[in-house]
Amino acid sequence: MEPSPTGQMPKRQRIDRQLLGEPISVGDRTIQPVARMGGWYGSQYGPTGGGAGAWLRLSPVEVIVQESDGSERRVPVTDPTREAMRAIAQSGLIVAGLCWLIMLALWLRRRKKR
Amino acid sequence: MSEGLPKQVEQMIEPVEQMLDRLQVGTVFGQPTKEGDVTLIPVAEVSVGFGFGYGFGTPGDVEEEAIAEEAEEGAESGAGGVGGGAGGGVKPRGYIRIDPEGVRYEPIIDESRIALAGVALSAWAIFWVAKTIRSFARALEKGK
Fold this sequence. Notes:
Chain A has about 110 residues and is α+β, with helices and mostly antiparallel strands. Helices cover about 30% and strands about 45% of the residues of chain A. Chain B has three helices and four strands.
């Protein structure tokens, strides 16, 4: 990391951990939840000022299902809303990018004709 | 005061390190609820954040050592400020349904949010397409 103008090295830690839960028995099945912890925390200070901050997100990832016959399968915990929002944002960027490219091509063609 | 603040900044980080050790899978996967043959496990997403900062006023064109002295004086005279804030939230994501047929995840879909984003995307697309058509028409006009 870059030292701050005041000479103090910022202390910043990235958090990325996978957490395994205790297995839960439901009937003849055993279910083990899996989550992910992500984010960062850090601090920086000098003679004239400083600060500290942290941001943390704990999100579910999947459940591991162990059937009575010993077979194991994973059920992913998805977020369709977030996926849809991401797809919408990507579509918006693609539309804007394509239109911008067409306009740029038209402008270049006009400039070449002059 | 200013000597104590860097220490306080580091002290602010310590609870975060402790919190990381305390957070468990149980924070996002709830207790199973059984009703007849069906067992439901609620699933959520948790996010937290905080920020804290302090600073003391100093003249702009002085050396670093002088800044430190000024800061010291400023701290003693109270010419500075401290602020902080924190926030967090829990968002339901869905539930795990366990029944004799199997185990599946049933997500909660925020339809109104998707619909609003869709409307915004349509407006955005109309804006860009109209702009491109106008540019195309202008190019045709000048080409004549």
